[in-house]
Structures are given as structure tokens and as C-alpha cells.
Design brief:
The protein has 7 helices and 5 strands, in the order βααβααβααβαβ. With 147 residues, it is α/β, with parallel strands linked by helices. The protein has one domain: Rossmann fold. The chain has a 5-stranded parallel beta sheet with strand order 3-2-1-4-5, sandwiched between helices. β4, α7 and β5 form a beta-alpha-beta unit. The protein is globular, with a radius of gyration of 16 Å.
């Protein structure tokens, strides 16, 4: 883009989908945590708008429930923290559910995992995961990124 001297450059905000495996890394120090935290910080700073199916909260709660260093109180605080991030949590409708089911068959994944991919496909944005098994199955998708 050619700019003239008086133009001011406006930062263009990007959008991305994150799955529960990324949200777990925001709350637990493990492989990939730094990259996941970078996504979260970009969201907080308004550089990237993060979205996810509302399923993320249930999957996150379940994943944390089985981490030995989390108890009920710590899981509750962690969920409140994620809610406070104001990620755009989307309630799946007919279109997302149809695409999720289609992707689950196409990539031989669960419908739970494929709902993140379906949302990314319908929105035309990248999907971030740290679930290596899911990534290996669906890596032929042009929008899936492994952290």
C-alpha cells in the first residue's frame, strides 16, 4: 500500500479461534505456554480478537479438573479469569453444527474438536490448537495452526 506523508497508519485487528488446549496453557506452565500467552496478550491489547465456541469453557473446566494442582476453588478462579478476557464465545447454531459434523467425518475427529475448526472455516480465520492428535488428523485444513 502506498501512503502519502499525511496518512496515519491504523493497525488492522486480526481474528483467530482458540481451542481449550490453548486456554489450558494460559493457566498452566507446560510446553507451548509462551506462544499461547502471546495470543492472549495480543487479545488483551486489542491486536487480535479471539473467538471460540462456548464449548471451550466446559472443556477447559474438565481439563483443569483433572490437573493434580487444581482444586474446585482454583478451577473456579481460572474460569472466571478466562471469562473476564471477554473472548467472543459463540453458541453453535445449525450452520456450525453441520460444518462440525462434516469436518468430524472428513478428518476422523470428534465433533467437539471439529467445532473449533468449523467456526474458523465459517469465519475465515485461523484456528489455534495445542492438541497434537487433533492437529495430526486435521492438518490438511489450511487454517489449523499448532502451538
Amino acid at each position: 500500500m502506498v501512503r502519502s506523508r499525511g496518512d496515519t497508519e491504523m493497525a488492522r485487528r486480526t481474528e483467530a479461534i482458540v481451542d481449550a488446549s490453548i486456554a489450558v496453557k494460559w493457566l498452566s506452565d507446560e510446553e507451548g505456554t509462551q506462544a499461547a500467552l502471546k495470543l492472549r496478550e495480543e487479545h488483551i491489547e486489542g491486536i487480535t480478537v479471539l473467538s471460540a465456541p462456548d464449548l471451550l469453557l466446559y472443556e477447559l473446566a474438565n481439563a483443569l479438573r483433572y490437573k493434580p494442582d487444581f482444586d474446585n476453588e482454583k478451577v473456579t478462579r481460572a474460569l472466571s479469569h478466562v471469562i473476564d478476557l471477554q473472548i467472543d464465545l459463540i453458541t453453535p447454531g445449525r450452520e456450525i453444527l453441520q460444518q462440525s459434523t462434516k469436518d468430524a467425518y472428513l478428518y476422523d475427529t470428534t465433533v467437539y474438536d471439529s467445532c473449533y475448526l468449523a467456526l474458523g472455516e465459517l469465519m475465515g480465520v485461523e484456528v489455534y490448537t495445542s492438541d497434537r492428535k487433533f492437529y495430526e488428523k486435521a492438518k490438511d485444513s489450511d487454517i489449523l495452526r499448532l502451538i
